[in-house]
Each structure stands twice: as structure tokens, then as C-alpha cells.
Design brief:
The chain is 44% helix and 16% strand. By secondary structure, it is α/β, with parallel strands linked by helices. The longest helix has 40 residues.
Length: 197
């Protein structure tokens, strides 16, 4: 057996092993996703969603909450992400939820594009990116809302990275959803659904 032939066999076996490992990971990911959707179909879960893609960081100088033209808004990609997230909910049999959103236009638009029902603007979901003194109070308000929410219905909160990180310690990507189970004042992270998956 010559060395070139042996290298070819070892290379092929390595390639097959990597492919098998990748398929196993993909299968596990699909299984995990299905478990999340099953939990959402059962109801009583919390979905924390970071608004979909909106280029930039923070908001421009002169930003006004009542004027979308002064804000950083969803890009076309962001609108596609939000619409696809809503389609994913519907495809998995989750067609309604109680939805609350930050008053920022990029959050409201994300929430509406989900198509899961009326969207209620909620100041406790507003970004405190430029005023972290509001973090403790707003996080406490969200915990109270989550605790008081009817146990049989899903609750979707569309907000900003800083708000989600303050509540969970997780740093989500744009358009990412954290699925959590509220139990006894604590939030159990069931999994994450990223935009485009």
C-alpha cells in the first residue's frame, strides 16, 4: 500500500466522520427546535425577542420616540427576518400570543410583522441603552408582568438587547428569540431560535 493511497483513504474517512458529526449536530438542533415549538404549542411560555436587523448602534442625535424618521429602523433584511419569524410561528402551529413591544419603531414593526395578534406598546420594554439608571426599575416591571401573565397563554416581548440581557444574562443577536418557561418567579431558558433558522 503506497503512502498517497493511504493518505487518500484517511482523508476520505475523516471527511465522512466530519459529515456524520455535522449531520448529528443538525439533527440535534432540529430536535431541540421541535421541542421548543412543542412547548410553545402547549402554551404558557415566554418569548423574549430582540428586534430584527436595524443597521447601526443606539439612535441618532435628536432621536424622538414619536417620530420613526428620527430613529434607527428595520432594514429590508430586518423586515424579512420579522416576517419569516412570524411564518415560523404559524408553520409550527402557534398562531396567537399576547404581544408587547418597546415603543421604538424597530420593535413595534418587528412585533406587528409576526402576525400573532394585536401589539401592546409597553414602556417597560423601552431601551435603556443610553440611560442605565432605568435598568433596575424596568426589569422589575417586566418580572411583575411575566409573573402576572395567565399561565396557559404564550407571552411574546419584543425589545432590545440590553433589556433581554438584564433579564436573562443572555446577549441575543438581532431577530433572535429566547424561549423561556416562567416558574415560581424564575425563568428557565428552554432554548434559542436565531433569525433565519
Amino acid at each position: 500500500m503506497n503512502a498517497a493511497w493511504l493518505r487518500r483513504i484517511v482523508g476520505t474517512l475523516c471527511a465522512w466522520a466530519l459529515l456524520a458529526a455535522g449531520l448529528a449536530r443538525a439533527a440535534d438542533g432540529n430536535a431541540d427546535d421541535e421541542a421548543l415549538w412543542r412547548a410553545l404549542r402547549d402554551g404558557g411560555q415566554l418569548v423574549l425577542m430582540r428586534h430584527a436587523s436595524a443597521p447601526g448602534v443606539g439612535d441618532p442625535p435628536g432621536f424622538r420616540i414619536d417620530d420613526c424618521a428620527t430613529q434607527r429602523n428595520l432594514s429590508e433584511q430586518g423586515r424579512r427576518e420579522a416576517t419569516e419569524a412570524g411564518e415560523r410561528f404559524h408553520r409550527h402551529g402557534v398562531t396567537r400570543a399576547d404581544i408587547y413591544s418597546s415603543l421604538w419603531c424597530r420593535c413595534l414593526e418587528t412585533a406587528r410583522l409576526l402576525g400573532l395578534g394585536p401589539v401592546t406598546p409597553l414602556p417597560a420594554l423601552n431601551s435603556f441603552f443610553e440611560n442605565d439608571k432605568r435598568e433596575a426599575e424596568q426589569t422589575a416591571q417586566l418580572r411583575a408582568l411575566i409573573s402576572a401573565h395567565p399561565a396557559q397563554r404564550n407571552l411574546v416581548l419584543v425589545t432590545h438587547q440590553v433589556n433581554i440581557t438584564a433579564l436573562t444574562g443572555v446577549f441575543p443577536e438581532s431577530g433572535e428569540m429566547l424561549v423561556l418557561r416562567p416558574r415560581g418567579g424564575k425563568l428557565q431558558l428552554l432554548g434559542r431560535i436565531r433569525a433565519g433558522r
